[in-house]
Design goal:
CATH superfamily of the largest domain: Glycosidases
Largest sheet: 9 strands, mixed, barrel
Number of strands: 16
CATH topology of the largest domain: TIM Barrel
Distance between the termini: 30 Å
Shape: globular
CATH class of the largest domain: Alpha Beta
Strand order of the largest sheet: 1-5-4-3-2-9-8-7-6
Structural class: alpha/beta
Radius of gyration: 21 Å
CATH architecture of the largest domain: Alpha-Beta Barrel
Order of helices and strands: EEHHEHHEHHEHEHEHHEHEHEEHEEEEE
Number of helices: 13
Number of domains: 2
Oligomer: single chain
Strand content: 15-25%
Helix content: 25-40%
Length: 473
């Protein structure tokens, strides 16, 4: 299985952080996304740097992704490329050594469209590990911690023109030799847990340090992905021991199946994890993934994030499936995710096929035409949009995203919030979120309209538990 760590710190009143859990200023705690239980509600998106960061038509493609109903994009910031030479002040987010223009552009473009980012940090610079390659750990974890602090500060919302990012992930697939080496010592013993744990702590500590004095609750999530081999390079139980006393708040799983005809709900053999295994307790595994995580990390009800899923299609991939079958599987996978109350995030890999790239699992073909999967994916994604949550009927305050407004409106500016014809002025937080008072009865569906002083408006709905939700077949 492939593991990495998703990290967040907390945003408070007048400053922003990479936040996933919000501790309010008042006694009443707002419901925040995507951690709060939301059966049938997901944050849905894509991972596709080739399309959203580097392509000439990246703005157009991001617009198409937004129209497909997404709310999050995952991007990988390669430390080696962002810091090709050692910074003079490595924790300074604007040290001249840093090369982050393409990331800046994506962060701004995503915010303008109401999309937030999950930033994955990976790839050691030569100056940090003796020129041994990006898949080798740094000699000093403190160098990685400094970079994580600089990145989290740059995208904290405290600097004009640099929007806030709430979500950070430590390393990419660290139990794959391509991304973290060595996996085994000379005796065949897995050394991945002891190599990875310092990287995870360094990113966590750096993000937290960037928000010192502001983060009052933090989370750490472990991301894991199945290997094709039965030999696990980075088994979860030793990794849990290596990470202690790190508290696990949730886990993300990548049940990626890019080629082959197997259905998303095909029964699982061995240790491989498929989307179907997340939707049923009858999956043929030694133990259910979620139950194993609960056991290893000593907690109950571990939330699950699906951070990569996709099916490649013919003819671009000769071993792929028919595009019409991809369309069915895309819808099926989203529906399966909504049926599991643990699943909070679903990311498809990738959005657009590109000539010369390895994966042809996009919902848009290389010639720009939409595959059949795009319409079916979009229809389902809009119906389960986690930005319009399902919450407990007795909730008094709900924390909702209004990122599109933050693109135009300075932090702290009062915005007009109308809920069922009752209007309130509420300050826009630096991370682009707002705390909305809710006055309703169980079963109500409340429309929330948020308008900034420049006339830009976003709409959200809040459904209070107590009424049957729409069944997704």
């Amino acid at each position: 299985m492939r593991w990495s760590l998703i990290i967040g710190a907390v945003a408070c009143a007048m400053v922003a952080a990479a936040a996933v859990v919000f501790v309010p200023r008042e006694a009443e705690e707002p419901v925040t996304l995507p951690q709060s239980p939301m059966p049938g509600r997901l944050l849905v998106g894509f991972q596709d740097d080739a399309t959203f960061r580097w392509a000439a038509d990246r703005g157009e493609m991001l617009d198409r992704a937004r129209h497909a109903g997404i709310s999050v994009v995952r991007t990988t910031v390669v430390w080696r490329d962002a810091a090709p030479t050692r910074p003079t002040e490595p924790a300074d987010s604007f040290d001249p050594a840093y090369r982050l223009d393409d990331v800046d552009d994506l962060v701004r473009s995503a915010q303008q469209r109401g999309i937030e980012l999950l930033v994955t940090i990976w790839g050691t610079p030569g100056w940090a590990n003796g020129e041994r390659g990006p898949n080798r750990a740094p000699r000093e974890p403190g160098d990685l911690e400094d970079f994580a602090e600089a990145l989290a500060d740059r995208y904290s919302g405290r600097h004009a023109g640099y929007p806030a990012v709430r979500l950070f992930s430590a390393w990419n697939e660290p139990n794959l030799e391509q991304f973290l080496a060595p996996q085994f010592d000379a005796t065949g013993r897995s050394v991945c847990p002891e190599l990875y744990a310092p990287l995870a702590r360094a990113v966590y500590d750096g993000v937290k340090r960037a928000n010192r004095g502001r983060a009052r609750r933090c989370r750490r999530d472990v991301t894991q992905r199945p290997r094709s081999s039965e030999r696990r390079a980075c088994p979860g139980q030793p990794l849990a021991r290596a990470l202690r006393p790190t508290p696990l708040r949730g886990a993300a799983c990548d049940p990626l199946r890019c080629v082959g005809p197997a259905s998303v709900s095909t029964a699982t053999r061995g240790r491989a994890v498929r989307a179907g295994a997340l939707a049923t307790r009858r999956a043929r595994q030694p133990r259910a993934l979620a139950e194993a995580l609960d056991d290893w990390f000593g907690r109950d009800g571990t939330p699950l994030w699906i951070t990569e899923y996709g099916h490649e299609t013919r003819p671009a991939e000769p071993l792929g499936i028919d595009p019409s079958l991809q369309a069915r599987y895309a819808e099926d996978a989203l529906v399966l995710a909504t049926k599991n109350p643990r699943v909070r995030v679903f990311l498809w890999f990738v959005f657009g096929d590109r000539a010369g790239t390895l994966w042809q699992s996009g919902l848009v073909a290389a010639d720009g035409s939409a595959k059949p999967a795009l319409a079916r994916f979009a229809e389902t994604a809009r119906r389960v949009d986690g930005r319009s949550p399902l919450v407990a009927g007795d909730v008094q305050v709900v924390r909702l995203p209004a990122l599109e407004l933050a693109f135009h409106t300075p932090a702290g500016t009062p915005v007009d919030v109308t809920v069922e014809q009752k209007q309130t002025a509420i300050p826009l937080e630096p991370d682009g979120w707002i705390d909305v008072p809710i006055d309703g009865e169980p079963g109500d569906e409340l429309v929330v309209e948020v308008t900034d002083p420049f006339g830009h408006t976003v709409l959200r709905t809040v459904q209070l538990e107590g009424r049957e939700t729409v069944e997704l077949n």
